[in-house]
Amino acid sequence: MSGIRAIAVPEGSLLARFGGPGDYRDAFAREVAGDVSLEQFIERFYCSLAFRPERVVLGLMGRGASNADARKLARGEAGAIAVWQVVERSGTEILLHSPDTGTASWLAVTPAPSGTTLLFGSWVGNVVNSG
């Protein structure tokens, strides 16, 4: 299994289709062993130790996201978590947008020869190019 690597934003993905052509987008991938569903990825991502500091900050802002909230989002029982609202979801991708911050988050899964490739990325709108 490989570590996290930067990749081109996949053509046709929810992330690629969101926003305007000049907006900032990034994407990353990590292969893991076994079959991982989008539901499992969403829950593990938002319940992870790595996401905990962000959850603490969001809680201080009154926009908390509990493990129960993450599980509801993962199962498709909620249309939002903390500051992010689901824009679109398929069986393999989810795109969440935060209108207050002008950012979006994207998670996706795809089969890999030895397991699953976890894909994740972000979008930032209204970026002014100063160059």
Describe the 3D structure.
By secondary structure, the chain is an alpha+beta fold. The protein has one domain. The chain has helices at residues 14-17, 38-47, 52-60, 67-74, and strands spanning 5-7, 24-33, 80-81, 84-89, 93-98, 103-112, 115-124. The protein has a seven-stranded antiparallel sheet with strand order 1-2-7-6-5-4-3. It is globular and about 40 Å long.
Question: Short summary of the structure?
Answer:
With 131 residues, the protein is of the alpha+beta class.
Topology:
Elements: E1 5-7, H1 14-17, E2 24-33, H2 38-47, H3 52-60, H4 67-74, E3 80-81, E4 84-89, E5 93-98, E6 103-112, E7 115-124
Antiparallel strand pairs: 1-2, 2-7, 3-4, 4-5, 5-6, 6-7
What labels would you give this structure?
131 residues, alpha+beta, 7-stranded antiparallel β-sheet, 4 helices, 7 strands, 24% helix, 36% strand, globular
Query: In order across it, which strands form the biggest sheet?
Result: 1-2-7-6-5-4-3
Global shape: globular
Radius of gyration: 15 Å
Helix proportion: 10-25%
- Biggest β-sheet, characterized? 7 strands, antiparallel
Output the structural class: alpha+beta
Number of domains: 1
